[in-house]
UniProtKB/TrEMBL annotation:
Matching NCBIfam families: GLPGLI
Signal peptide start and end residues: 1-26
Xref: Pfam families: Porph_ging (PF09697)
UniProt keyword list: Signal
UniProt protein name: GLPGLI family protein
InterPro entries for the chain: GLPGLI
Species of provenance: Porphyromonas catoniae ATCC 51270
Amino acid sequence: MYKPMALKLRATIILLFCAVAPPMNAQNGGIHPNIRETLEQMESIAKPDTVKKVILDYAQYQIYYEKVYHPIPSVRQPEAKWIQVLQVGSQWHAFANLGNLQADSIWDASIRAGKRLVDFYTAYSNASYSVRVPGWILLNNVTDTLEFYDRIFVEHYCYKEPIPKMEWKLLEGDTIVAGYACKKASTYFRGRDYIAWYTEEVPLAYGPYKFRGLPGLITCLYDTARDHSYSLVGLEKVQGKYIYRKPNKNTFNTTRLGLLKAKKNYTSHPDGYKSDKIISHTGSAKKQNIPYNPIELE
């Protein structure tokens, strides 16, 4: 079962990883010498702190999905897989990448234990970069709204919108997913047709990403092109797990369509990316376009 130094420093570490050197030394599995030197310099002028959080709720359940993503539409390779987690609280839900949650936990536990940054950076970065696509969704079931947090390189973005109302069509058919008897349904959502399998054995009307509203937990979901799919791989009842927001004064508030446009612009022209945080690119190699196949097409 799957069970900060200020944010500015954390963003700087991400920038170093992306723009300066890989985090691992290929020969011995340690931190790349360039990054080790920089981390030691940072420790000499600033003291790390735990991850800053605004606690919104406590999770009662954690539901784990394997996400499969094909960055080139309708093409099976390349393919990326990673684990995402739906946290279900009494008022708030969160949908996040398991690697991001693990990275935050590693950071907190290491700082509280008095460890030096260089001593836990490898474990922290391995968890952080196990994620293939960033994103963090907070869903408020009282106000019926959601907050979507994302990143383009080292720039952080957020938009808010009403929680989408899915128009499901219940279909004939049954199957077994992760040991649960499941029924079939379909819906259309922002440019894609989806098939879902859900189980009434788990009376939670929720699912991965923004999908919800069926008479039971969604155990499997995929668009008909099979570019995005989610499969249940674990479910546990939990206590003491926070559902939290990570405040960042540098987060840029935008709209859903504004973020979609910005990501398309970046992936189409990565060499043209400019930011107040990035003065220049390291190296002279021309960056190729980044395959990008968003789950929401419109």
